[in-house]
Structures are given as C-alpha cells and as structure tokens.
C-alpha cells in the first residue's frame, strides 16, 4: 500500500516527482481504501496502479471512482479482479455543465463477471444512465446496500428478490412504473426509497417486508396502496406525500411503531377517523370535504333539484329552499343545496373587467379571469354554496397554483380551491365553497405551504423544493400562530441573462409570512440549498451572501455578518426572528443588494408586443392588442384571414396590471364619448393571460374622397401600479419615457356609400322600411344600407344570429355567389321583411351584432336612446 501511495502522490503525467506528494497520497489512499473520485483523471490513475502494482491493488476493499471519467469503460474490465472488494462507488455528478447542474455519469451497464465479487456488500451506482438494472448485480451474494438513484430505470428484474441480504435499497428519481412481486422476498430489507418515480400501483407482496422501518413512496402516481402495508409491524416512517391517493386503508393506524405518516398533497377527500386522530399524521394539501354533489350519491334529493340555464342577456335568478343548479352563459356553475336559502332569494350577478385600483395583485400573481360579482352581498347561506369558475389555463411553471380570491369589501383573501380540467371541452375550472356572496376572481399564485406553529415547535418545508425547510424549536411562541411559506425558483440562465455575469448564482427565493406582528421568542432555523454549482467542498464563504428583502422587494440588505451561518455539503442554515424575503447569493460582487433588486424587478416583467390590424372588408374597423411575446405568432395566424396590418411592434416590458393607452394620430380619430376614452386616448390594462384587445371604429376629419389617409396609432404608458419598485416608476416619468411603440394605420380613399343613393342598387329595388316602434326606436332603409356598408365576409354568422335559417343563408349565397355586396344586402333586407311587424326587431339586430363579434355596429345602433327615432 505504501508503494501505491508513492505512485499516486509522487508521479505526474511524465513520471517525475511533484511537490506536496504526501498530502496527495493521503487524501486518496488510507489503508485498504482507494478514493480516486476526487481526481478528474481517477480512472487513469487506477489503470496505472493496476498495471504496475496489481498485487497490492487487488487487496483493496473500498474503492471510489467517478463515472464521469472518460476512461470508465476501460476501468470496469479490471474491477472483477478485486476479490476482496467490499464497497464500490461508481457515482456520477462529479462534473457540472455551464449552468452548474450535475452531469450524470456515462455508466450504462456492468461486465458479466462483475457478479463474482462475492465480498461486495455496498454498491453505489447513483447519477448514471442505467435504463435496466445489470443482471450481474443479482449474483452478488453478500450485497446489503444498493443505491441506483438518479438513473433512468423503468422496471426492476422479476427475480429482484434474489438479493436476500439487502437491507437498504434506494431507487429514488428514476422512471419506475411498477415493481416485481419478488420484492416481497427481501426479508431483511429495512429502508426502501422509491420516491419520485412513476409508480401507479404496488404489489400486495410489499406487505411481506416485515423488517422494513422506513418506506418512502412520495412523488409517484399512486391512486391507492394495498391493505397489506398494515403487516409492516416494524415500520416507523411512511412517506406517501405528492401522489394521487384518493383513499388510504384505516388499518395503517394499527401499525405499532409508526411515528410519521405523511399524506400531504394527494387527492384525499376523506381520511379514516382512526388515521386523522394520529398525532404524527400530516394531511395538508388534500381536498378534504370538497366533494362535488353527485346525482348517484343521493337520488332522493338531487332528482328534485331544478336546473337553470341562463342566456347571455339575463342577470339574475331566484333560489328557493329546495335548492338548484345554475349554469350561466359564460360557463360559471352554481350548486345551491336544499336548505341553503330558507326563503326565496333573488341572486344578481355580473362580470366586471378587473380594475387595478381595487383588484390588488400580489407579487408574482397572474390574473386568470374577470371579476364575478354576486349580490346580495353579505347574505349568509345556511349551507355552503359551491361555485365553479372557468379560467384561462396558465402557462406557468410548477411553482404556481390556482386559487379563487374573494373581496370582503375591505381586503382580498384566498379560498380553499380545487381545480380540474373538463374531459370534453378541455377547459379548466376552479371550484370553491362559500357561505356568502361578494366579488370573486381566479388567480395563479406562488405555491403556498402553511402550518400552525404550536408552543412545542414544528417543521415546515416547501412542496416546490423539499430541500427548503423552516424549523421552529420548542418555546418559539406562547400562542399558536399561522405561518406561510412560498418559494420562487430562479434558474441559472435567468440570473446570467439579467446580470450579464456568469459568476453570479442564486438559490430559490424564499418568502415567509405569519399572522402575528410579534417576533418569535426564539430564533427560527432556515435551510436553503446552496446556489447551483456550489457545494460544501468548493465553497468560498467570502462570496456567499444572505440577503433580506422588504415586503415589496424594493430593498435588499446583506445580513451575512448578522447571522450565524452553518454549511453542509448541499445546504446553508441560518437563524432569524422575523419573516420576509430571503435570498442566498454567490458572487464576487460587493454591492449585491442592487443586483438582487434588479433581478427581482425583472422577474416580474413580461415581454410583450403591440399589434394594430384592420379588417380586410372594412379598414375603418381597427383591432388593437397587447400580446405576450410567446403568443404573438399564434394570435396573428388566427387573425390573418380577416385582418391585415403592419408587423408587430418591437418588444417592450410591462408589469401585470399595468395601465397603458392607445392614441390615434396624424389624421385619425375615434369617438371621444367612449367610456374607456381618457383625454382622447383609449385606456387598457395589461394582464398577461387575459385578452388585452379592443376593436374600434375609426374616422378621419380629412376629406378622403380625393386621397387615402396615412395615420398611426401610438402606445403610451399610463398609471403605474402601486407595487412597482420606486426606481422603476421614477425612470418612467417624462413624455419620452411614456412612449412605448407606434404602428401605421392607413384609411383608403372613400368610395360612394350605398346610403348616399338609396334607390335601386346592384339590381335590387328595396321597399320603404320603418321597423320598430317609438319605444325601442326605428330602423329605416338608410340605416340598413349604412350597416351593409360595414359588414363583410361575416354576413353569414350575422344572418344566423338574426334568425335566418341555414337554408336561407345557403340560398342567398348561391343566388349572389359572384357578388359579396349583393349577399349582404339580400341577407339584411330578407330579415327586415320577415320582421316588419316585430316591435322588438331593433333590439334583436343589436344583440345579433354583439353575438357576431361586431360590437362596433351594435354600439352605433345603440347611440339613440329608447324613445328616439332611428331615422338617419
């Protein structure tokens, strides 16, 4: 062994002596242990040793090699000669990519004679590329510890139970879909970790692992677990969180040694009473009690429930003590159980656009719906009323969750929410239960983990990143208080792009809050993972900074010198007494607070483009929209058949809930009486997942009979939300900083309008018309001719919404197949003649235009108030 130490420490590539040899030798070799995974060329060193000192190498009992080594395959052929080998580590993860992520090793198999290592008891093949477990492993008679975590295993061998001496097995972070029945033959197994796989069911034979003390099945797709788990009398800890469990057997409560049962983040709607009373069971993140009423569940009551389907024009309905189901035209559903209202109650509802003056979004929130107002406000129901609200499915990462938020008149709060996707329509709905009505909307927020902290202390960890933990020691508080935790992961790519510094790295952002204004009586311990690419082995503590941010994220203070930092191989641990934002940074920069502030601000910004398109058949109808950058191409593709216009604007950045304006300039104007018109400009509010779109009718004071008008529309920033950082708001002051983009708008030269000569037109001779009455207003021939000049290829959908049959539409299209103008005129006057005696035809025309997406025509026809004639 001494000669091996000399060879390892005293020879370099050229065979010449190097300084520091004793230290190098001692670091990799101690007695019968050979640690070569600390060298980037460890396999080369091993092969050199095996060639020159084979007699001593074969005596080695403990060997560590890196599977990231390019000479690994060559080295594997020599390993079966180490007959005395007891422990072998062939792990990957020693090399990292440019973003600091661990690179898996190159190991995909083992040589067949590897099974001849009869003394081998410990084998670690983690962080490799194994898709199947090498069969030679099953021939290792003494193997007691096997680690194959972070590979690509899809299944285990059917005869896996041959490893009868196995006491510890970890296959965490693979792709296992099922387990062999022979796993029940591992009678000596004490610790089984199968977390973060794709298991959907377990064999009953798992119940035969009578010596198992810890079983981790978290992060799989289990819908149920076998009753045989109740046979595991030695089991102390059972981890089942983050599955799809809808039920658990009550017999688990009878396990005599069980001290932890984790059922968090499943789909459990009910938990057996025997389990709920256990002091060590954890059940957060389950939709307990949120069962949707089923007609099959209680036929005697639900069969009598009325079903109300409301049309788009209706704004109220009545609920009686018998209960009912209500479906609104916008897709919102209500369930009023029998007895919810003791007396008949008239419910009024309306959909409101979100106003940022009172719809206050929190940091990193995303608005997913309009505001639903339900009246009367504050009326208390006798039983919970269930609401299903459709929302726009967010393209947000896993650290976000969807909740229904309600307004009490003073503040907004989040309701317990369950979400699901409808099978047929694929639409997403958010479900909540309430006892009174007010205002409701759907938002996507950072995933929130919460707990009640008792006087004896507790533990809270993040479901987004379980490596983030908050430990509350005994005596931390006198009275129980609620604590909430949210985590925002920040990728290395984002940090590098924003800071333009490859040396800057950061941990996930941690936000802690509580329902008490009093600081904790004892320090609370926080564990954060070290930034990507940083470990306890290569850590330079002078580059590590703990930052504390205020509630608005506008100020970031370096508190590294104020806290006691502890380090492990993967984590940093520190103590605090008050809660807010915490962020761990690793950088050579000195003023890190300013950099963190810049990154935090950019994380809340959206990159958007503006579009301005004109209808092909009616250029005076202009569509304006603010579109997130990744949605621009799909939106334009959807509109290209009906609209034309310039390329989208250059990319700009906006905050969720930020106001902006559109101003028509250079000879183009709009109706200044519009309610959304402020000082001659159209007002918009940007929400990343809502349609920031308006379709308007523009005119020009310039005489267009002689020439076209080349104008433009410019976009300007407006009121800045209260939560925007102060320096970002300051930078936007002044006329130049308010401008965002400008796009051209061209109005073509005017042609003679149809209503300027209401006589015979295109071969048609129209009789005089006088539709409607004095109460609703009148429509004349001139009105219809004016409308015809505004309608284009959408005349068929308008005709259907007016009440014409498909056969009539087809006949009109065929008879005038060579002339679009004749098709439009024939459709409108055919409808007019059919409804000449209908006093409500004016309202029908306006409704049909709205349903056809022609809000511009509907608004023009609505200008005259009821009782005024519509004769132009």
Count of beta strands: 49
**Biggest sheet, in brief?**
12 strands, mixed
- When the domains are counted, the total is 6
Give the terminus-to-terminus CA distance: 108 Å
Predict the CATH topology of the largest domain. Answer: Chondroitinase Ac, Chain A, domain 3
Please state the structural category: alpha+beta
Radius of gyration: 35 Å
What is the percent of helical residues? 10-25%
Task: Identify the overall geometry.
Answer: elongated
Strand content: 25-35%
Overall CATH architecture of the largest domain: Sandwich
Strand order of the largest sheet: 1-2-3-4-5-6-7-8-9-10-11-12
Average predicted local confidence, pLDDT: 81
Tally of contiguous helical segments = 18
CATH class of the largest domain: Mainly Beta
Contiguous low-pLDDT stretches (5 residues minimum) are 1-30, 290-303, 720-726, 728-736, 753-760, 863-872
Keywords: Leucine-rich repeat, Repeat
Domain ZU5: 313-446, 447-588
Organism: Ficedula albicollis
Active site: 436, 438, 578, 580
């Amino acid at each position: 062994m001494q000669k091996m130490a000399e060879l390892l420490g005293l020879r370099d590539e050229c065979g010449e002596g190097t300084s520091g040899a004793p230290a190098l030798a001692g670091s990799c070799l101690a007695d019968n242990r050979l640690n070569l995974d600390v060298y980037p060329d460890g396999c080369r060193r091993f092969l050199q040793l095996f060639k020159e000192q084979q007699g001593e190498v074969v005596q080695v009992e403990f060997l560590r090699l890196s599977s990231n080594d390019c000479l690994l395959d060559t080295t594997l052929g020599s390993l079966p000669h180490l007959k005395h080998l007891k422990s072998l580590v062939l792990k990957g993860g020693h090399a990292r990519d440019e973003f600091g992520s661990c690179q898996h090793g190159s190991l995909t198999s083992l040589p067949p004679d590897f099974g001849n290592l009869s003394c081998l008891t410990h084998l670690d093949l983690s962080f490799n590329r194994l898709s199947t477990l090498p069969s030679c492993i099953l021939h290792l008679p003494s193997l007691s510890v096997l680690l194959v975590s972070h590979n690509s295993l899809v299944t285990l061998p059917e005869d896996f139970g041959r490893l009868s001496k196995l006491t510890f097995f970890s296959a965490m972070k693979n792709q296992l879909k099922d387990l062999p029945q022979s796993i029940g033959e591992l009678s000596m197994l004490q610790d089984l970790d199968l977390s973060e796989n794709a298991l959907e069911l377990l064999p009953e034979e798992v119940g035969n692992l009578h010596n198992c003390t810890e079983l981790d099945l978290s992060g799989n797709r289990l819908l149920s677990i076998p009753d045989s788990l109740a046979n595991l009398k030695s089991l102390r800890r059972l981890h089942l969180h983050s599955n799809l469990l809808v039920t658990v057997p009550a017999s688990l409560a009878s396990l005599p040694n069980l001290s932890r049962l984790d059922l968090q983040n499943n789909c459990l709607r009910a938990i057996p009473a025997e389990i709920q009373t256990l002091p060590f069971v954890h059940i957060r993140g389950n939709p307990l009690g949120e069962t949707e009423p089923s007609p099959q569940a209680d036929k005697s009551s639900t069969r009598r429930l009325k079903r109300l389907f409301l049309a788009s024009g209706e704004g109220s309905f009545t609920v009686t003590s018998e209960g009912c189901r209500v479906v609104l035209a916008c897709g919102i559903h209500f369930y009023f159980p029998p007895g919810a209202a003791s007396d008949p109650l008239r419910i009024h509802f309306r959909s409101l656009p979100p106003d940022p003056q009172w719809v206050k979004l929190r940091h990193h929130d995303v608005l997913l719906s309009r505001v639903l107002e339900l009246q009367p406000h504050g009326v208390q129901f006798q039983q919970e009323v269930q609401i299903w609200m459709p929302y726009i499915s967010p393209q947000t990462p896993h650290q976000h969750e969807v909740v229904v938020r309600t307004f009490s008149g003073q503040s907004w709060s989040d309701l317990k929410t369950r979400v699901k996707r409808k099978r047929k329509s694929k639409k997403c709905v958010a479900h909540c239960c309430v006892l009174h009505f007010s205002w409701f909307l759907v938002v996507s927020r950072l995933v929130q983990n919460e707990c009640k902290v008792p006087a004896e202390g507790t533990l809270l960890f993040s479901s987004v990143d379980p490596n983030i933990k908050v430990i509350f020691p005994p005596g931390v508080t006198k009275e129980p208080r609620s604590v909430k935790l949210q985590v925002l992961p920040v990728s290395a790519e984002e940090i590098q792009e924003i800071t333009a510094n490859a040396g800057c790295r950061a941990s996930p952002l941690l936000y802690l809050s509580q329902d008490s204004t009093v600081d904790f009586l004892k320090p609370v311990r926080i564990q954060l993972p070290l930034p990507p690419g940083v470990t306890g082995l290569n850590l330079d503590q002078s580059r590590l900074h703990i930052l504390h941010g205020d509630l608005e994220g506008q100020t970031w203070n370096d508190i590294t010198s104020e806290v006691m930092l502890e380090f492990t191989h993967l984590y940093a641990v520190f103590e605090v007494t008050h809660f807010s934002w915490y962020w761990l940074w690793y950088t050579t920069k000195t003023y890190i607070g300013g950099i963190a502030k810049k990154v935090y601000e950019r994380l809340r910004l959206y990159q958007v483009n503006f579009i301005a398109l004109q209808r092909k058949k009616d250029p005076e109808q202009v569509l304006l929209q603010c579109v997130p950058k990744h949605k621009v191409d799909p939106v334009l593709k959807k509109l290209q058949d009906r609209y034309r216009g310039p390329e989208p604007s250059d990319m700009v950045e906006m905050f969720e809930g930020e106001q902006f304006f559109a101003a028509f300039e250079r000879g183009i104007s709009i109706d200044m009486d519009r309610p959304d018109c402020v000082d001659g400009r159209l007002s918009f509010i940007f929400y990343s997942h809502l349609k920031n779109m308006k379709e308007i009718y523009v005119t020009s004071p310039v005489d267009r009979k002689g020439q076209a008008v080349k104008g433009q529309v410019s976009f300007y920033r407006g009121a800045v939300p209260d939560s925007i950082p102060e320096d970002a708001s300051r930078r936007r002051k002044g006329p130049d900083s308010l401008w965002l983009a400008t796009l051209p708008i061209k109005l073509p030269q005017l042609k003679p309008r149809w209503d300027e000569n209401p006589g015979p037109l295109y071969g048609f001779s129209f009789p005089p018309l006088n539709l409607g009455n004095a109460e609703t207003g009148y429509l004349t021939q001139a009105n219809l001719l004016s409308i015809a000049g505004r309608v284009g290829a959408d005349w068929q959908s308008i005709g259907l919404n007016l009440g014409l049959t498909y056969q009539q539409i087809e006949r009109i299209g065929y008879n005038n197949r060579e002339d679009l103008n004749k098709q439009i005129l024939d459709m409108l006057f055919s409808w007019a003649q059919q409804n000449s005696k209908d006093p409500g035809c004016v309202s029908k025309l306006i409704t049909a235009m709205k349903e056809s997406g022609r809000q511009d025509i509907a608004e023009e026809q609505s200008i005259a108030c009821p009782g005024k004639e519509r004769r132009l």
